[in-house]
Amino acid sequence: MEERKYENEPSNEGEEENEKVKSTRKHLSDESKQGIFSMLLLHSTQGKLNNRKVCYDIALKYGCSVDVVRRIWAEGKKIDASNPEDLKSFQERLKRKRGNNQKPVPFEENLFKSIPRHKRRSFRSIAYEFHEATNGKLKGHSKSSLQRKFKGGKFKRHSNAIKPSLTMYNTNVLVLIGKKEH
Questions:
Q1: Cα separation of 128 and 143, whole Å?
Q2: Which of 3-7, 22-26, 119-123 has the lowest mean pLDDT?
Q3: Farthest CA pair distance, the chain
Q4: Tally of CB atoms within 10 A around 148
Q5: How far is 75 from 3, CA to CA, in rounded Å?
Q6: What is the CA radius of gyration of the chain?
Q7: What are the tens digits of pLDDT across the range 145-157?
Q8: What is the C-alpha to C-alpha distance for residues 147 and 127, in angstroms, rounded to an integer?
Q9: Would you say 94 and 34 are in contact if contact means Cβ atoms under 8 Å apart?
Q10: DSSP states of the chain as a string?
Q11: Which sign, positive or negative, has the C-alpha torsion 55, 58, 60, 62?
């Protein structure tokens, strides 16, 4: 009987064997995940796998890690097959998440206006003031999210430059300088 070598099993042969192990991640399609689970069901009785090496065989066949196969098996064992809602939720969990599914956090304009201007000099200081004002309960106002909101036009930059106040004397001098240049 031929002894099989598996990619994810520890080997005693040295570093040559370890160099053959691929470290790149492969995203399985939804059909592949369902195929893995159906193969695991074929090789199981009463919720237990018949052979320990079944996971390795399936991982080799689909070109993925054994941990992925075990995770799919663990997720599948949690569901009640007779309940169609559980089956549907399991199929949804098997599907790879595409895109960002987070809900956008609304911008608290009143809270932003309550922060004094001298404390609104940088995104970091604004984020800190949001955190302090809500005792850490308001999430979604980190430095990077504030930068995105700024770019999206939720708030505008104002000048920090200290402008000299123009007195009547200063304005008259500026007018005279302007007339001499023309």
A1: 9
A2: 3-7
A3: 104
A4: 11
A5: 30
A6: 31
A7: 888 888 888 888 7
A8: 10
A9: yes
A10: -PPP--TTS--SS-HHHHHTS-----PPPHHHHHHHHHHHHHTEETTEES-TTHHHHHHHHHTS-HHHHHHHHHHHHTS-TT-HHHHHHHHHHHSPP-S--PPPPPP-HHHHHHS-GGG-SSHHHHHHHHHHHTTT---S--HHHHHHHHHTTSS-------PPPP-HHHHHHHHHHHHHH-
A11: negative
CA 114 to CA 15: how far, in whole Å? 61
Query: Is the separation of the CB atoms in 82 and 76 below 8 Å?
Result: no
Both structure tokens of 68: 């992925």
How many residues are recorded in the chain?
Answer: 182
Domain map of the chain by residue range? 21-94, 109-151
CA distance 88 to 73: 16
Does residue 171 have a pLDDT over 50? yes
d(CA 18, CA 33): 27
Tokens of residue 45, six digits = 């009785």
18 has pLDDT over 70: no
Q: How far apart are CA 63 and CA 56, in angstroms?
A: 10
